[in-house]
Amino acid sequence: MDNFGIKDALNQLGIKELNEGTSTGSQWFANGDIIESYSPVNGELIGKVKTSTKDDYEKVMQKATEAFKSWRLVPAPKRGEIVRQVGEALREKKDALGKLVSYEMGKSFQEGLGEVQEMIDICDYAVGLSRQLYGFTMHSERPMHRMYDQYHPLGVVGTISAFNFPVAVWSWNAAIAWVCGDVCVWKPSSKTPLCAVACQNIITEVFRKNNIDEGVSCIVTGNACGDLINNDHRIPLVSFTGSTRIGRHVSKTVAERFGKTILELGGNNAIIVSEHADINMVLVGAVFGAVGTAGQRCTSTRRLIIHESIYDKTIQALQNAYTQLSIGNPLDASNHVGPLIDKGAVQDYLNAIEKAKSEGGKVIVEGGVLEGEGYESGCYVKPCVIEAENSYEIVQAETFAPVLYVMKYSTIEEAIDMQNNVPQGLSSSVFTTNMREAELFLSHAGSDCGIANVNIGTSGAEIGGAFGGEKETGGGRESGSDAWKAYMRRQTNTINYGKELPLAQGIKFDF
Ligand code: UN1
Prior knowledge:
It is an enzyme of class 1 (oxidoreductase). The protein is α/β, with parallel strands linked by helices. The chain has 15 helices and 24 strands.
């Protein structure tokens, strides 16, 4: 493996054999069990991380709540300056961190670099945002009165992130939360803990250089910490990325104590391929969407809804494209598809294919687990394509693997209905050069998803937009646009600068 420079990357990122994974910067609290992180690339042990006990968690929370008291007083643009430096530090470590993401998670090195680029971009975005945390001003109905609203820091933000974007999704939360004046406690996925340790090492250096309380950025490790966060009344906002099943639990638990959540749960993303589509564009969008990250993005393309008049032609082009895919070590730039995260995911993939067949699905491109040289980890699978009905149970569910379901439609209205007719509502797209179809798809009678694209696939959203979806996707929004508002508390202020005290609604109260 070392011809890919993994050892050097680990060194640069300060990853040791045993990492005491509970931390507020330089202070380490970790007395729990050990998580071993194995690479899905070759099955080798990369390193170990100690988990947080309840006591460790408590210590971290004390640090975080203490840090909030000073961090919220730092002027927002000054907080932005710290985030700018975090972006700079990430630029310096981009190669090493991209490599670790690829090695620990299994996505291609290009995508690993892309993920770090998203982190850098969100930092840049947050720097500008730090001068734009605007509220409205309103006209009061009373004379000599002024009204406005303003946004204040919220407190400790708990981020529980998933393995598939082990660094970027956390940074969307952290960079925005920091400029908003919040402090962060991060519980990374136990499948990719080293990526989190690497981020913490990078950030700690920046904070230390600036004499910032390191409690502004904390990590707790181990799955038990998830529920500690969910139940903790000191955490007003929990941002959770993961399955709908766990998301439902997070949502209930946090709501019970009137905490807020940002939920980024499952997707079941479809591309509608119109008879007016540019087929070459469809191929790039659909194949990257379905097999990129081995189908393990929330935004991965799961369904292709194809117009009947171009169905056969599109299927042929798809089959042809799939035969050209090379599957193997994701650090090798000549491969398109890396491994799934672990053997459990491989089993889910196999079960999905079996289930699709048993419901009547017809295999268009055969799947299967790869064996032999280069595939020793047992996590490499062949991307597959299955002709299916939208109503199949398996098509209605999200399988985090490169399984693409294809189906036919005859009218655009029918296609939009099919696209919407699943429990999830994250990303969607239509490929068409017909303006009426495109506009209908984007209209209030169109896609019901949080993300709706025209002539772009379902995956690969830019950080400038708000990211998230409807229905079982959870309804949260992260990243750009005005998603920052969820990280602040809103306050309406009315000031009377006159000498009378008129009541609102003209109410008289004389005595
Ligand atoms: C996710 O899959 O959890 O749009 C996030 C995309 C990426 C982020 C995906 N920018 O595919």
